[in-house]
Amino acid sequence: MERVIVWFRKDLRLSDNPCIAEAVHLDFAIVPVFVWNNSQNDPWVPGAASRWWLHKALGSLGDTIRHKSGELQVLEGEPSTLLTKLAQDNQCSALYFGRQYDPYGIAEQEKVQSALKNANIPWKSFNTHLVAEPWENLQENGKGYQVFTRFWKQCRKYLTRTPTPYADSKIRFAPPQGSGSSRLPPAIFLSQHWQQKLCAHWKISEQAGLDKLGNTIGSILKSYRYKRNRPAQSGTSRLSPYLAWGLVSPQRVVQEILAAKDEENRDGVSKFLAELGWREFAYHLLYHQPQITSSPLNPRFANFPTQFDPELFEKWKAGQTGYPMVDAGMRELWETGWMHNRARMLVASFLVKNLLIPWQEGAKWFWDTLVDADLANNSAGWQWSASSGVDYRFRVFNPALQGAKFDAKGEYARKWLPGLSAFSGSQIHAQKREDNQLGESYPPPCVDYHGARKRALELFKAL
């Protein structure tokens, strides 16, 4: 039986994986490998929480492959060199991999392709991470979209694509030959004490991701349109980290969500698919506007005055700002590696608009602490909150009003701020309060919201 290397990247799964499908279709034995690239000067190397998730995901994938008499090789070094040698040692007919869309991911795969070509080893790449490729969905002038509604209108036609089916029993793995390692190189995953907290909140495997999808269809969709903005309720899918590392594919999510559409959850399905559309849009922006990871998409905002205050930044990171909805979100992040999207928008707005700290600093903190850290989504989300992205209306979220609207009973705040357990929702989210109204153990506001809002609006108007 001929052999083929499957180079796993952001597609750590065996089902609905086009690389696997191609190998099964051609009846090739698979040599599975993941490479940690330590030779590329990438400013966006996965952060601590992502590396923890990756460590667990690779362990789970390795166990699954081992049960099928294979061995996942996890290598550390330059992918072009390692993959070429692995292909030669195993006498492989080709190498398959899933495409990435950020500048460093693209450079990495181009270098691999060049090395394989020089060694006369065929390769083939696949879309394993998106519903539609960024170059498939363009404006009539050939440029990328910068308005979501127009993008989504065109992108919806790709939702009906059906993945190539293949039976799990048809997957064959080849025993590895040559030098390799099935253990995770210790230099990749330096353990941090706070990461141990994350284990209590997540099950990390392909099956766990599919279970999340099943729960979304069976429970979440019916009330998704109404509950998705209420952080105290189980109203969202929590699929984002499984999508970030490809334990579940967006194509499968779309197909199963569409199949579940009926009168009872029609509105929930439409809204959920639109949220997946924002994920696609973020990748579209990253591919066509790669500067969004560090520079404002809207040049006007490049001149917005900022003032980095280390003390205020530390209070924000630690959830000690004195604003319960902001602090609850930041405490949830530190405890679980995840934050409800409503809270994400609020804490980002607060950092940039009320504290005048550059959005890039917040993006870096999220990058290091989110288990679902995704360069496209993280960059686009922060630019949206900073009003420097595609939708640049200058919003300044009011933490008290956001709390009163989306956490009226104070359940979310009390969950993550136990010192407020004796207070009602109206007390917690009061518009005005004395410094010690919520108890002496809870910090006073680190900044006057109304004064800070007025300042931000004046600065924006002066641009």
Q: How would you describe what is shown here?
A:
The chain has helices at about 20-25, 50-65, 80-90, 105-120, 150-155, 195-200, 205-220, 225, 240-245, 250-260, 265-290, 310-320, 325-335, 340-355, 360-370, 375-385, 400-405, 410-415, 425-430, 450-460; strands spanning about 5-10, 30-35, 75, 90-100, 125. The protein has about 475 residues and is an alpha/beta fold. A five-stranded parallel sheet has the order 3-2-1-4-5, with helices on both faces. Strand 2 (about 30-35), helix 2 (about 50-65) and strand 3 form a beta-alpha-beta unit.
The main sheet orders its strands as: 3-2-1-4-5
For the terminal residues, how far apart are their CA atoms?
65 Å
Q: Give the rounded overall mean pLDDT.
A: 92
**What overall form do the CA principal axes indicate?**
globular
Number of strands: 5
Compute the number of helices. 20
Structural class: alpha/beta
Helix content: 40-55%
Strand-residue fraction? 5-15%
Return the string of H and E elements: EHEHEHEHEHHHHHHHHHHHHHHHH
Radius of gyration, CA atoms, in whole angstroms = 23 Å
The main sheet comes to:
5 strands, parallel
Low-confidence stretches: none
